[in-house]
TrEMBL record:
It comes from the Bacteria. The lineage of its organism: Bacteria, Pseudomonadati, Pseudomonadota, Alphaproteobacteria, Sphingomonadales. The keyword Magnesium applies. Transmembrane segments: none annotated. SUPFAM superfamilies: Enolase C-terminal domain-like, Enolase N-terminal domain-like. It holds the Pfam family MR_MLE_C. SMART domains: MR_MLE. Its EC number is 5.1.1.-. It comes from Sphingomonas abietis. Belongs to the mandelate racemase/muconate lactonizing enzyme family. This is Dipeptide epimerase. Residues 133-225 form the Mandelate racemase/muconate lactonizing enzyme C-terminal domain. Keywords: Isomerase, Magnesium, Metal-binding. Signal peptide: none annotated.
Length: 330
């Protein structure tokens, strides 16, 4: 008789290094939710961060996880979760924990369990928080020689000055920018054209999610990437023809299982891929490390933005993410 799978969840608070500032506000700490599934002596863990702009909180995510204790005990699989739970952080935490548990049960790394290629180091963006141009320039200058790809948070008014300042501070870096919906009501094509001289190669989420029709007919000289507008495969239809890329985040998609399916369908539709993350520890970005293999852009600096990480976390060297857990995730 098979052992019962037990599900538990807890909230952990992690301090941010300084403050993480975007158009919607600032964070000095982040609450993550850790789900644990255990069967006999085997255990798997998954970490998730609440999608706050969808009304999730750490408490609601924890409670949603615990509500699944019965079906997990009855043997629900990762595939079952796609129909048993809505997309979001709670499903991500359980999905990741089940990937780990399954890998430990049979003694294989997760990538091999999922039929994926052996992962290689991933070059990740480093985020420059929203601020006055002078502050963003100084922050960019501090990354010199460490991070060849920078991601800038923008706010609408004054964005060209911000990008120009960062380019001055990091003249050799590749640049992507994240408008965080702040260009709603602005001329997106004109805003993008103004950034061309600074070598910006991608613009994330220029308009509010749900108002993607504002991009109909827009001829942007820089590719546009859907973030808040694309959570899982059900969102692809309204992104095609308006965006040229999608940002896959496991907390949005509801886990690695859905993220891999979304990646496949997005590629088939001709879209490029960014794989991103919320503020999180290395446990939170471990499955995203696999999803990011082969993506055009990775933005997995969540652990770097914290004051400290888990002791068994990823190493970051020369702007690359190196797996510190080769027997499990790489």
């Amino acid at each position: 008789m098979a052992a019962t799978v037990r599900l538990a969840a807890r909230i952990e608070r992690w301090p941010v290094a300084g403050a993480f500032i975007i158009a919607r506000g600032a964070k000095t700490e982040v609450d993550v939710v850790v789900a644990t599934v255990a069967e006999a002596e085997s255990r798997g863990r998954g970490e998730a961060t609440a999608i706050y702009y969808h009304g999730e909180t750490a408490e609601s995510v924890r409670d949603q996880i615990l509500a699944m204790s019965g079906v997990i005990a009855e043997g629900a699989s990762r595939a079952d979760l796609l129909t048993l739970m809505p997309r979001g952080a709670a499903r991500n935490a359980i999905d990741t924990a089940l990937w780990e548990l399954d890998a430990r049960r049979i003694g294989l790394p997760v990538w091999r369990l999922g039929g994926l290629e052996e992962p290689k180091p991933v070059a990740t963006a480093y985020t420059i928080s929203l601020g006055e141009p002078e502050k963003m320039e100084a922050d960019a200058r501090a990354t010199a020689g460490k991070y060849p790809l920078l991601k800038l948070k923008l706010a609408g008014e004054g964005d060209v000055a911000r990008v120009a300042a960062v380019r001055c501070g990091a003249p050799e870096a590749r640049l992507v920018v994240d408008a965080n919906e702040a260009w709603t009501g602005r001329d997106v094509a004109a805003e993008a054209a103004a950034l061309v001289p600074y070598g910006v190669e991608l613009i994330e989420q220029p308009v509010r999610a749900g108002e993607d029709h504002l991009l109909d007919g827009v001829k942007s000289p820089i590719p546009l990437c859907a973030d808040e507008s694309c959570h899982d495969r059900s969102d692809l239809a309204r992104c095609i023809g308006r965006y040229q890329a999608v940002n896959i985040k496991l907390d949005k998609a509801g886990g690695l299982t859905e993220a891999l399916l979304l990646s496949k369908e997005a590629r088939a539709a001709g879209l490029k891929l960014m794989v991103g993350c919320m503020l999180s520890t290395s446990l939170g970005v471990a499955p995203a490390f696999l999803a990011a293999q082969g993506a055009e852009w990775a933005d997995l600096d969540g652990p770097l933005l914290l004051a400290r990480d888990r002791p068994d976390g990823f190493r970051f060297e020369g702007g690359k993410m190196l797996n510190a857990q080769p027997t499990l995730w790489g």
